[in-house]
Structure formats: C-alpha cells, structure tokens
Amino acid sequence: MSDRQPRWTQTWIGGSRAAGADLGYPGERLGLPEEGRGAVAGFGRRLGAVLVDWLVCTWAIAGGLLHARGRDQGWVGLAVFALEYVLLVGMLGMTLGMRLFGIRVATLDGGRPALVSVLIRTLLLCLAVPALIWDRDRRGLHDRASGTVVVNG
Fold first, then answer.
1. DSSP string of 21-45?
2. Which residue in 36, 39, 60, 132 is a FRET match for 100, CA 20 to 30 A apart?
3. Do the Cβ atoms of 136 and 119 come closer than 8 Å?
4. Using one digit for the tens of pLDDT, what is the confidence trace for 33-47?
C-alpha cells in the first residue's frame, strides 16, 4: 500500500469525493436522516413519480378524457400537470406518482408546504430546466426557490 496521491485528472473527473472531500450524505446539511422515512428521495423514485404524473396528465386526462390531439395534447397535458401539482401537493403533499413511489414534498422542517411555495415550485417544475439543476442535497432549483425538499414518505 502506498500513500500515492491521485493524479489531478482523477480528482477532477471523479469529483470532490475522489479528491478526498467528505461532503456527507444528501440531506445531512438540512438535518435529515441518511435513510428511511424523511430522508432525501433518490433520483429513481423522483423520476418514476414525475413520469407517472406526466403520462396520467397527458395521455389519460388530456388525450383520453379531454380529447386533446397533436400539439394541443402537450399544452393541455402541461396545464393538467400543473393543476394536479398545485391541488395534490398543496392538499396532500404528494401527487399520484409520488404516492406510488413512496415520496412526498416537504418543507425543510418536515411540514407540508404552503400554497405560495407549491405555486412557485410548480411553475418552475413546468419550465423543466430549474428541475434539472441539482445541488448536493438532490434539491433542484424549483425546490430551493420554494423552500422544499422531496423526501421518502
């Protein structure tokens, strides 16, 4: 065993952990547990939940129930998606997809987000780009702007 330091390319490509920095687990800075109920939800669950919600809103409701077709189906589906998020996250703290994947939206102290936070989060989520920029606690810009975090239910 040698105490040889990694090359600079290995630290840059491997990220801060490869350079020896211990950033802790996602949610540690927020005072959340490492795993189990109340821990920051993983990418797979979040992606699965948003896919279920999107499919239900665009195919089942916009296409099937409202008979929207072509480009209209996309815009109507987005409007239904936004309405679903505002109503369900505002009242229950989770959407249908989140319920299926066992996750929920919470404030940083663990409570249910206020309506203003839900509106901000939903608007930014519908823009898509803010939801694709993450921090080390797995919070997208939409979560940071609304003071929320997605946790295991």
1. ----STTGGGT--SSSTTSBPPHHH
2. 132
3. no
4. 999 999 999 999 999
Rounded Cα distance, 73 and 67, in Å: 8
Query: How confident is the model at residue 4, as a pLDDT?
Result: 64
Pair of tokens at residue 4 = 């040889």
User: Model's pTM, two decimal places?
Assistant: 0.80
Cβ neighbour number for residue 117 with a 10 Å cutoff: 19
99, two tokens:
């319920």
Angstrom distances, CA of residue 101 to CA of 44, 70, 116: 9, 30, 25
Residues with Cβ within 8 Å of 130's Cβ and at least 6 positions away in sequence, in order, are 124, 140, 141, 142, 145
CA distances from 70 to 37, 61, 82 (A): 41, 14, 19
